[in-house]
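Predict the 3D structure for this chain.
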Amino acid sequence: MTRRAERGPAVVPGESTGTVGKCADLARRRAEALSAGSAAAVARQHARGKLTARERIDLLLDPGSFVELGQLARHRCHEFGMERSRPYGDGVVTGHGTVDGRTVCVFAQDFTVFGGTLGEVYGEKIVKLMDLAASIGCPLIGLNDSGGARIQEGVASLAQYAEIFRRNVALSGVVPQISVQLGPCAGGAAYSPAATDFVIMVDRLSHMFVTGPEVIKAVTGEEADPETLGGARTHNEVTGNAHYLATDEEDALDYVRVLLGHLPSNNEADAPVYAPSRATPEEPDTWLDTAVPDADNRPYDMRAIVQRVVDDGELLEVAALFARNVLCAFGRVEGRSVGVVANQPLHAGGALDIAASEKAARFIRFCDAFGIPVLTFVDVPGFIPGAEQEHGGIIRRGAKLGYAYAEAGVPMITIVVRKAFGGGYAVMGSKHLGIDVNLAWPTAQIAVMGAQAAAEVLHRKQIAEADDPATFKKQLVVTYEETLCNPYLAADRGYVDAVITPSSTRDEIVRRLRVLRTKRRPVSAKWHGNMPL
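Done. Predicted structure below.
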């Protein structure tokens, strides 16, 4: 191998000695960078139903806004014949552009160059981009499609994974970080997306796992196909590692654009404010007055209630397919972004479990990090009982939800719609966790447990000995409901600030959010608490 080949393409004498020639040489290099992957590799990418890195960036960003960084960077590896192939860009496209006129930093892994594998220079480009995002305070978006570490570069490749992860941690809570999985993501590469705020995956196109099917089979003998092991649907429905299941790449990038519209650029900025869509004051929404069924055990769709409260009924759900017994979504009130956490009676009666607690806690902490108010709609019969939940760590993992609420300093409003029983009442945004405003509908039942269960626990012996057990139990239930299972005892003690008519819910929230806009965050000298992770 000659030194001329190491430096790059040969230069014909006299062709680039003048300005015109040098500009022509630059244009050639740029053209090579724009088509770093071979035509055959691009064709294979398209045949798989996948876009190229640059096509993805063009689809995500505002037209003509992308400014590329490190376009002419190339790897420095000389092992295993790597010196014979040194494409510009080194397999990743990095730069900044705008989404709806707001600056974002973006990198796109290029599977047509070395299978998108990460080497030293490749990693350095991403690290520089992350440092830029931190410096200027803008969101970071990663479009991931990679075969993993570049084996030929050894530990230099692994070092860059750790450098990237360290910056994921440093940027956490400073700028929004969004990972879009558009192909494979295996091994150490999978930890970086896990440390970002939102992970979007494409159905039957994205895969993410620490150890792939081949490694699992070689080590354990277990057969596992990529889709079941770490496909987009698995991570959206089972593991909760992903937050949106896209139908295709365009759907995934559309979700990112809409999501960014709800988020501030950084932790010191405000989220975009849009013109209010409704007149003020508004007419009461009488539909809400009959939204809750009279029968306590009858389910209903909490999402429909929330949609009547937020602007235009628009909600952007996060992790909609995971832990469906709790709803987490972004919406707007008077054009301003809010985070919504709500029990969903259509699934498990709205009861909390490990998955729901962790899902809601993570969402609340994100909102708190970026100054987004949290609205909580409560209909929780408690925690799901059983050995599976207990052995899975519900005590520790369920405590994360209460911890997230208690730690948060953003404006918070809780509305008890129906049930608020036992520990579920305590951790679902109760006044005792420092919530700013606690409201309740007349249908609210705030108690240790429901009337039916309470009657059986307190009066089991008397019921059994009664001449007419059914009638006697019914009388006890009515007495319990009138005495304890209502919103008025909590209101009497100041645990509920007001009992409101359902139809006035939006107006109540609007008025109170206006007041809370100037809320000051608590200042503490401690580094951080020890969350029950």
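DSSP finds 21 helices and 17 strands in the chain.
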